[in-house]
Amino acid sequence: QNGYSIASLYNNLNKCSINVNGRTFVQNIENLAKTRSIGLLPSISFIIGTVVGSGIFIAPKGVLMNSGSVGLSLLVWALCGVLSTFGALCYAELGTSFRKSGGHYTYLLETLGPLPAFLQLWIEFIFIRPAVATYVSLAFGQYVVEPLFMPCVAPTALVKIVTFVAAVNCWSVTLAARTQVLLTFIKMFALILIIIPGIMALVNGKTENFRNAFDSDSLSLTKLPLAFYSGLYAYGGWFYLNFITEEVINPNRTIPLAIVFSMVTVTVFYVLINVAYYTIMTANELLMSDAVAVTFASRALQGVAPAIPVLVALSCLGTLNGGFFSSPRMLFVGAREGHLPAIFSMIHIRRQTPLPAVLCLVQSHPFILFSQGEIFQLINFASFSRWLFIALATLGMIIHRYRFPDHPRPFKVPLAVVVIFTIVCFFIVGLSLYSDPWNTGGSCALTLSGVPVYYLTVKKSYIPERWKKAFSE
């Protein structure tokens, strides 16, 4: 009647804008108007590019330190690959059953309810994502700075470098995506550059470091969960494709294929690269190195050794970029469900970037100032909550299968795979409380601190009326 088309009227009803300090953001209340543009090859690149990062260059020390022997550490690496593949297959079923973005948060919300979902969002927001950004940044700094000071120890202040990844993701979605593709190719080249000389040396008979590979005086079953934490940290990232499900073309086919191909490829590469490490370096030499790839390159790749720290640093950069690209989607969905302020589901009206969500994640970097370079403590702290909620998500999948057997499941994982993965995750999480009670207990307490926040901010109806009056006064 006033000249508005139905389409324009719909758009006006489903969008709202807000101006904050001169910056304009727009929110699509329905679905953020995302278009499906990620096919099979980009999905594979996204998973591999996010998984392969700082972990394979810093976790070998943590795995060996807590497993106690070369042979057992290689077994841990292989088992972590199998376990991660099992988990990725479970998430393939979840991603095709609930075709919404948000990853862990969405699956917990759909299967176990709003409280577990909110707690996952809470710990992801206040610590997991900050910790991941911190220890990847620390690894980035170690590989860039340490070569300049060898054989001396690099200054802590220089190691703690905050990268420009957040700025890239704030500036342009296209720039962030192209940066991820480029860094994926660089990191795979870095892995191949390390694997080839190590395997060639092994074939030529350099096997002395593998003799009595399982002999150890420091083996402790209570430390094994920490070895798995380090290994699983290196495989971490297989679930990030589920954060952007709404943008994947034909997710029923693309997600399972991308996950299977990516995880098999990564597992083979990770085992081979650890074999290469142990072929050139002894166990003691690996434990004494804070930058394993640098030590390896100085012995096996003398001609191109200066390039290795740069390649590893760029690989760390790719992991950070993948995290900053995918994690804001979880904040989007959380805000859409009313568990976070609405501004986190808004995008910059000109740049079309999730600027509020990215800036929310950047608040993580104060942790860098207090971490004192203790990367493995951060890994243990963050891994407890991360794997607890992954286990809860797969437990919720089992419960959902039982409660809603007729729910469409285009890709269905054998029940044995789901049960094994869930039990192992709970076992690792539970035993880690005994192995490292200070860090894992602190992570547990930090997670539970979200319970009163949930009832005070989300479930306000649970607050007694007299309390509400007291607060209002």
Automatic annotation (TrEMBL):
Membrane-spanning residues: 38-59, 71-94, 106-128, 148-169, 181-204, 224-243, 255-280, 300-320, 378-399, 411-434
MF-aspect GO terms: L-amino acid transmembrane transporter activity
Membrane-topology descriptor: Multi-pass membrane protein
InterPro entries in UniProt: AA/rel_permease1 (IPR002293), AminoAcid_Transporter (IPR050598)
Highest taxon of the lineage: Eukaryota
Protein name: Cystine/glutamate transporter-like
GN (gene name): si:ch73-352p4.8
Keywords on record: Membrane, Transmembrane, Transmembrane helix
Organism name: Sinocyclocheilus grahami (Dianchi golden-line fish)
GO cellular component: membrane
Compartment annotation: Membrane
